Each structure stands twice: as structure tokens, then as C-alpha cells.
Amino acid sequence: MLRPFARTAITLFILSWFFPIISVANWSALIIASVILTILYGLIGPILKLLLLPINVISLGLFSLAINIGLLWLTTYLVPGFQIQAVILFGIHFSVLATLVLVSFLISSIQSLLHIFI
Predict the structure, then answer these.
(1) Are 33 and 79 in contact (CB under 8 A)?
(2) Alpha helices in 19-95 (DSSP H)
(3) Beta strands 82-84 and 88-89, pairing class
(4) Phi and psi for 79 in degrees, rounded to 5?
(5) Cα–Cα distance list, 96 to 4, 13, 54 (Å)
(6) Global pTM value
(7) Long-range pairs of 31-35 with CB within 8 A, sequence gap ≥ 24
(8) Are 79 and 36 contacting, i.e. CB atoms less than 8 angstroms apart?
(9) Where are the domains of the chain?
(10) Distances from the Cα of 31 to the Cαs of 37, 41, 48, 81, 93, in angstroms?
């Protein structure tokens, strides 16, 4: 459980450093968000994917994205110093849901790159 926690902590730090839409109040909020996100992705995520397997099969695996977005939203709800705000890109104001889709994609991409090194 230590390696996924380290990958998640590094990922959240990198994302909060480069993207102003992701804000972490302090180091303790970053650590708590990393712990909660690691627990949710590691324990609750597989249970939800197993329970919602028929929907996931019908949607050809796209419902896994919805599960990951829900777990990320739950993390922002549970950790008071961790926020993801709506993004404005090229003058277009996207909703928080679209921002969560983008952040979920970035988290999975960076974690897959970090999986090679850590």
C-alpha cells in the first residue's frame, strides 16, 4: 500500500503544481487526500467495478471512467483542503464534471508513468 500511496501523493503534487484548477491547502491536506484517494481506488474501486460489471460490459468499459470520477469527487468532498475547480479553456467555461474527467485522465496518465519508476 506504500507504493500506490507514494504514486498518488507525487501525482497530486505534480498536478497541483502545474494546474491552478487543482488546489491543495497544505502538506497535510495533500497527504490526507493521497491516503483517501489510494484507499478509494485500491479498495472501494474494485468492489464497485465488480458490483457494476453488467453496466460496465454494456458500456464497453466506459463506466469505469464514471466510477473513477465518482471516487475523485468523493475525495474532494471528504478532504477540506483539496479542491478541483471548473476550468476555462480557450474562452470556454467547462463544468466541474468535465474538469473531473480531465483530472481523472491526468491522474491515471501520470500514475502509469510513475509506475515505471516507482
Answers:
(1) yes
(2) 27-39, 45-51, 53-58, 63-78
(3) unpaired
(4) -100, 115
(5) 26, 20, 27
(6) 0.90
(7) 32/79, 32/81, 32/82, 33/75, 33/79, 33/81, 33/82, 34/5, 34/8, 34/9, 35/5
(8) yes
(9) 2-117
(10) 10, 15, 24, 11, 30
Kindly report, residue by residue over 45-96, the tens digit of the pLDDT: 999 999 999 999 999 999 999 999 999 999 999 999 999 999 888 888 888 8
| 37 contacts 75 by C-beta, under 8 angstroms | yes
Distance CA 110, CA 63 (A): 21
Q: Are 84 and 100 in contact (CB under 8 A)?
A: yes
What are 74's three cell numbers?
468523493
State the Cα–Cα distance between residues 77 and 34, nearest whole angstrom: 13
Rounded distance between C-alpha atoms, residue 45 and residue 8, angstroms: 15
Do you know the residue count of the chain? 118
